[in-house]
């Protein structure tokens, strides 16, 4: 009985716990309001110097913020065997005024001050506010520098035009480690060519509905096929495609015609399609003006190969592992001035080629998001995913349930002890029982006077 009551109390407490701020973050916006990427993970405060840089842990997502002109530095400990990929994304709020050159600049810096890698992520159009970011890397065996074991530092610098909104931008950061190959394992050869110069879009098959997410963690999983969605002006929707070793992904994003006024004009960079690797590294992006007439963009990735990491072409070298490749579809906020609502989008996904055996890793690469399997492909149904923090929240909730059950059980035991003690005291306070004389007897036997 007490166990059941304890569980009930703990469950009640857990429901209250789950209904807090974390649940509120998942509430969809109202009709016509662009959905946005809400930063997730553990809070961290980047430092101004390498000496004070807070340590990040591999595979953990962090959130921070950055001011205009500020540089935030984070510590990353690396060994001599693993390749590392550190990503950062800036998430300015909808309506934020941004300029062409605004954005963030990433560097991975060694303890000796060498720049191991750098990447810039700018809006590249006035007013095109959206999530921007990429990843920087330290590659073992490919780079000639930054091979030592030591603390490295991820530097994130914010650039901003003088007329841009000076408000603080949220950041989401993480880094992952790719294990090395086993001793003597072959890295293979990079495939010849990177694909068709003018790829053909997939046209056969019944279109299915997809619900693009607002971040990498909530990206809708889609596979070969035709998928339909709608994107509001000012929104960026994320989709992820499972691509195995030896396979090649081609993605077309067809933006539909919409009703516009007779005086509607072109919006420069009105629509955009961006491709990212499994470690959130920017591969390439395409953009086009939009006036409410049909517009199509496409990205064709190189065939996936471990050996691609040595390629001179960065668009090829970034396609160096199997995993979930991400495609972000953006509609410029100014499109709202020319149209009356969301823009219908048709995604034509084509993953071609036979999956090949994975390289012989000396460790499990899945922690870095490397690799896919048949289950990933079969489960790619277009539904948006839960945020990564949901897993953390779920674990926290489980831990909370354990503590709540323990606490509730303790309270019940104390209550039971108090009840027993009170009952005993009441019993002790009652008057002693008085023995009453027996009534006169009757029947056989001598009379009472004897």
What's the arrangement of strands in the largest beta sheet? Answer: 1-2-9-4-7
Largest sheet: 5 strands, mixed
**Uncertain segments:** 1-26, 388-414, 426-450
Count, helices: 5
How many structural domains are formed by the residues? 2
What is the terminal separation in angstroms? Answer: 61 Å
Radius of gyration based on Cα positions: 31 Å
Helix amount, in percent?
10-25%
Overall shape? globular
Specify the CATH class of the largest domain: Mainly Beta
Task: Describe it.
With 450 residues, this protein is an alpha+beta fold. It folds into two domains: 43-180, Jelly Rolls (Sandwich); 201-386, Jelly Rolls (Sandwich), CATH 2.60.120. It contains five helices and 19 strands. The chain has helices at residues 2-18, 21-25, 314-317, 374-378, 388-429, and strands at 42-43, 62-66, 71-78, 83-90, 103-109, 115-122, 132-138, 150-159, 169-178, 208-209, 220-221, 225-231, 236-243, 248-255, 267-276, 282-290, 295-300, 323-331, 343-352. Strands 1-2-9-4-7 form a five-stranded mixed beta sheet, with no helix packed on it. A five-stranded mixed beta sheet has the order 10-12-19-14-17, with no helix packed on it. The protein is globular and about 65 Å long. The two termini are 61 Å apart.
């Amino acid at each position: 009985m007490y166990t059941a009551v304890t569980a009930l109390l703990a469950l009640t407490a857990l429901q209250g716990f789950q209904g807090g701020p974390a649940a509120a973050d998942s509430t969809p916006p109202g009709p016509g309001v662009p959905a946005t990427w809400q930063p997730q993970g553990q809070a961290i405060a980047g430092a101004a110097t390498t000496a004070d840089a807070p340590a990040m842990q591999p595979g953990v997502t962090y959130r921070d913020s950055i001011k205009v002109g500020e540089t935030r530095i984070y510590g990353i400990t690396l060994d001599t065997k693993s390749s590392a990929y550190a990503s950062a994304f800036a998430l300015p709020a909808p309506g934020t005024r941004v300029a062409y050159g605004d954005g963030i600049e990433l560097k991975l810096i060694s303890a000796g001050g060498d720049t191991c890698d750098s990447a810039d992520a700018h809006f590249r159009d006035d007013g095109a506010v959206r999530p921007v970011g990429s990843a920087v890397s330290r590659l073992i065996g490919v780079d000639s520098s930054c091979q030592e074991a030591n603390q490295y530092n991820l530097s994130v610098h914010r650039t901003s035009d003088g007329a841009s909104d000076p408000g603080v931008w949220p950041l989401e950061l993480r880094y992952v480690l790719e294990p090395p190959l086993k001793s003597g394992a072959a890295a293979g050869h990079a495939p010849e060519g990177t694909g068709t110069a003018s790829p053909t879009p997939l046209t056969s098959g019944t279109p299915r509905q997809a619900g693009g997410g607002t971040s990498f963690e909530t990206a809708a999983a889609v596979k070969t096929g035709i998928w339909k969605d709608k994107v509001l002006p000012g929104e960026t929707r994320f989709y992820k495609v499972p691509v195995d070793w030896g396979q090649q992904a081609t993605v077309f994003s067809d933006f539909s015609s919409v009703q516009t006024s007779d005086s509607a004009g072109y919006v420069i960079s009105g629509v955009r399609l961006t491709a990212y690797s499994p470690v959130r590294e920017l591969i390439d992006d395409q953009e086009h003006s939009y006036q409410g007439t049909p517009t199509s963009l496409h990205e064709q990735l190189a065939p996936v190969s471990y050996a691609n990491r040595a390629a001179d072409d960065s668009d090829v070298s970034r396609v160096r592992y199997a995993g979930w490749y991400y495609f972000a579809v953006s509609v410029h906020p100014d499109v709202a001035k020319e149209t009356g609502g969301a823009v219908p989008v048709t995604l034509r996904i084509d993953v071609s080629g036979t999956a090949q055996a994975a390289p012989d890793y000396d460790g499990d690469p899945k922690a870095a998001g490397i690799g896919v399997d048949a289950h990933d492909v079969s489960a790619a149904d277009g539904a948006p995913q839960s945020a990564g923090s949901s897993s953390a929240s779920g674990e926290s909730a489980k831990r909370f349930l354990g503590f709540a059950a323990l606490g509730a059980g303790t309270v019940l035991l104390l209550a039971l002890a108090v009840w027993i003690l009170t009952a005993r005291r009441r019993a002790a306070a009652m008057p002693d029982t008085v023995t009453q004389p027996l009534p006169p007897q009757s029947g056989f036997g001598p009379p009472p006077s004897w």
